[in-house]
Task: inverse folding
């Protein structure tokens, strides 16, 4: 084709798409990162205040927040980074070749123990290690052998509420409450929590729940 002004305009013209796509530009961040950012801001907000603490004491909580962020990044990388399938197939193929070839090199005159028991024990051991490695490849999830993350969170929430009660900060303790997890969202299993801590101001209660909370508060006042 001959280089003409019309050809230049055709090449430089922006492409025309038949479909248009809407792009969401709303700022978004994962909840753990948002919580750690808020904790850092709160630590820095109370530095050198009359009700707060000195600047030299802010290093420890900021260091904990930094370590927590690094651990979260490592967990995210562990979950989102898959093991290459060729590597998995190679390992299983080499394991199969080893298990098949071991009995062939054992002298038949060695007896029953050397020809049957030893290869069987070696096979069960290697296959068991392979099965365990497959199970613990990603320990985060809802399976029975996964880490109990929700249980650890529930224990942390209970300990935080206990600390507020022990230190006598009634205002902070009254600002939070335990809320029942809906049955549709509860995980199956005896170790799954049934309650979580939330801000009292962000909970909408019906008449039955309000009466139950009032009864609990009355019982707590009588016990004190």
Result:
């Amino acid at each position: 084709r001959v280089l003409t002004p019309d050809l230049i305009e055709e090449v430089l013209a922006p492409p025309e798409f038949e479909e248009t796509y809407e792009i969401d530009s709303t700022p978004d961040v994962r909840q753990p990162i948002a919580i750690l950012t808020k904790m850092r801001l709160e630590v820095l907000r109370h530095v050198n205040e009359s009700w707060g603490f000195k600047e030299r004491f802010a290093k420890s909580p900021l260091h904990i927040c930094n370590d927590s962020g690094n651990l979260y990044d490592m967990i995210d990388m562990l979950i989102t980074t898959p093991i290459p399938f060729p590597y998995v197939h190679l390992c299983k193929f080499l394991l199969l070749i080893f298990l098949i070839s071991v009995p062939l090199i054992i002298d038949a005159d060695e007896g029953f123990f050397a020809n049957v028991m030893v290869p069987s024990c070696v096979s069960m051991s290697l296959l068991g290690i392979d099965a365990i490695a497959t199970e613990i490849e990603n320990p985060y999830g809802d399976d029975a052998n996964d880490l109990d993350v929700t249980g650890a969170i529930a224990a942390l929430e209970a300990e935080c509420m206990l600390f507020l009660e022990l230190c006598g900060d009634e205002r902070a303790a009254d600002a939070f409450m335990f809320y029942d997890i809906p049955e549709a969202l509860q995980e199956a299993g005896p170790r799954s929590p049934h309650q979580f801590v939330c801000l009292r101001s962000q909970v909408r209660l019906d008449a039955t729940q309000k009466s139950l909370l009032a009864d609990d508060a009355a019982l707590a006042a009588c016990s004190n």
Notes: The CA atoms of residues 39 and 157 lie 16 Å apart.
